Amino acid sequence: MKHPVDVHVGKRVRHRRWMVGMTQQQLATKVGIKFQQIQKYETGMNRISASRLWDISLALDVPVAYFFEGVEAGEDGVDGAAAGISPVGDLLADKEALDLVRSYYAIPENQRRQLFELARVLSNAA
């Protein structure tokens, strides 16, 4: 059975890989494993060892702690179905949302701020 934290960490690996525009094959090559293993990590089917997570963090240029952002443990560890995992993690598992975020950050900063303000105004108008 998949542990909720393994699933969350896998989603964060996938999210970061997409954000930097890297394929599973490219990440696997950088880490020195087969792309099928990356697939298993990203789905939470296989747990990522500490040393492998370290290698992945270097390849994706983020601190190891990045993969655990959004996870909160209850007093007795992870609390089952809720798992203390932020709904933002679920949103970022969506391909369309990731494409939107990647495109947003590709816009020059001054135009990005204007777009952000437009989105804020439009969302309040609804």
From TrEMBL:
One of its GO terms (molecular function) is DNA binding. SMART domains: HTH_XRE. Residues 21-67 form the HTH cro/C1-type domain. This is Helix-turn-helix transcriptional regulator. It comes from Mangrovicoccus algicola.
